[in-house]
Amino acid sequence: MNYLDCNSVNYYLGIDFGTSGVRAIVIDEQNTVHVAITSPYSATSASLAANWRATLFEIMEQIPEASRRCLRAIAINGTSGTALLCDHQGTPITEPLLYNDARGKAVLNHLVAIVPTNHPVFSATSTLAKLAWWYQNLPELSQTSRSGCLYLMHQADWVAYLLHGKLGITDYHNALKLGFDVENLKYPNWLTQPMWGVVLPEVVSPGTPIAQVHREACHRFQLPVDCTVCAGTTDSIAAFLASGANRPGEAVTSLGSTLVLKLLSTTRVDDARYGIYSHRLGDLWLVGGASNTGGAVLKQFFTDAELAALSQHIDPHHPSPLDYYPLTQPGDRFPINDPDLPPRLDPRPDNPVDFLHGLLESIARIEAQGYHLLQTLGATPISCVYTAGGGAQNPVWTAIRQRYLGVPCRLPLHTEAAYGSALLAHQSLLR
């Protein structure tokens, strides 16, 4: 394929900045995958943001040039609640605080006086809690911030900025944990007080075209001058979009490093006591929560090869007597919202098959507890659950989960969050 072929061929790129690496997927007008590339995070710099930049550039360069030359639009998703502060030139002035960083628990008492009762931002890991922590613990930034030169940006926002060069724009999926009112599509009055000391991002709908790729990126990656970067989303919502779920009662469980539940509901449910919040999705609501349990715990004890081999010796129809709460460190967000919740990984049997069985069973139990809680609080009852993430490839785990959930567990049309972001990029030009 040469450049002239792009008069009749259009491609769309989705990039997933997940918890353990980056995935890029290129689709065509029929949403067929043409390129799929995975890259671990670069370790060329001590700075996390610099590693994000290096990994973005590496994965862009790995996309075949013929495909890059035909890209019409790009959309990026990042981990929900991961954020950083940067100056007016887009240079980070803080290390990013990750999605599971719970230092915000130190300022929750401060938020009580500001945030309405039962708001989803009242969590130790919310973006607003991170902002409040920065405000209270970085007094040396106060003078700079009051001059309006500091920008709060989510991971997806900042990575997209590296391609389009416009600061201060986010999507309403990422902005939910900042406090944006997704029902009325505006910032609430209590959030726009000058006390936060930063420029709050302009909020647009996911998939909204933001700007064309800037000249330097066009030249470096051989992109068309009219290639557009669109507003992105969070990793779990991108995975939901990729799944094909589109009816109330259909749900998606993301079994990656963490456990994320999303249930499509006609009713909005928010309950900060349990870490439950609702994302807007057209006229419906994605009700759910994110737990810190998941694949990261499994990888503490087993390699991928061991997980596959040992799983074959587990009878998924026979319950494990072990009752764990698998976490890599203290603290969970949902269905138990407790930043000090201790991991429970004892007793550990000598047989690794039994230990793995107990871990898989316990994570499945937490998943079922989460869906039960959503329905108890008014969400549409689940009719089936699609599974995204690495855990979707384990049929034994799927059988265990189906036993707990009591509804069919299905493979989604696509399991990669990057595919959902590619769909956003494609749909952006159909608006």
Describe this structure as you would to a colleague.
The protein is α/β, with parallel strands linked by helices and 431 residues long. It contains 13 helices and 16 strands. The chain has helices at residues 48-62, 65-68, 108-112, 127-137, 142-146, 155-164, 215-221, 235-243, 295-301, 304-311, 352-376, 395-405, 417-428, and strands at 11-17, 21-27, 33-40, 71-78, 83-86, 151-154, 169-171, 202-204, 209-212, 228-234, 250-255, 259-265, 277-281, 284-291, 384-388, 409-410. The strands form 4 sheets. Strands 3-2-1-4-10-9 form a 6-stranded mixed beta sheet. Strands 13-14-12-11-15-16 form a 6-stranded mixed beta sheet, with helices on both faces. Strand 1 (11-17) and strand 2 form a beta hairpin. Helix 8 (235-243) crosses helix 13 (417-428) and helix 11 (352-376) runs parallel beside helix 12. It is globular and about 60 Å long. The chain starts with 10 loop residues before the first strand and ends with a helix. The mean pLDDT is 91.
Task: Kindly summarize this structure in a few lines.
The protein is an alpha/beta fold and 431 residues long. Helix content is 30%, strand content 20%.
Write the layout of secondary structure elements.
Layout: E1 11-17, E2 21-27, E3 33-40, H1 48-62, H2 65-68, E4 71-78, E5 83-86, H3 108-112, H4 127-137, H5 142-146, E6 151-154, H6 155-164, E7 169-171, E8 202-204, E9 209-212, H7 215-221, E10 228-234, H8 235-243, E11 250-255, E12 259-265, E13 277-281, E14 284-291, H9 295-301, H10 304-311, H11 352-376, E15 384-388, H12 395-405, E16 409-410, H13 417-428
Parallel strand pairs: 1-4, 4-10, 7-8, 11-15, 15-16
Antiparallel strand pairs: 1-2, 2-3, 5-6, 9-10, 11-12, 12-14, 13-14
Helix pairs in contact: 8-13, 11-12
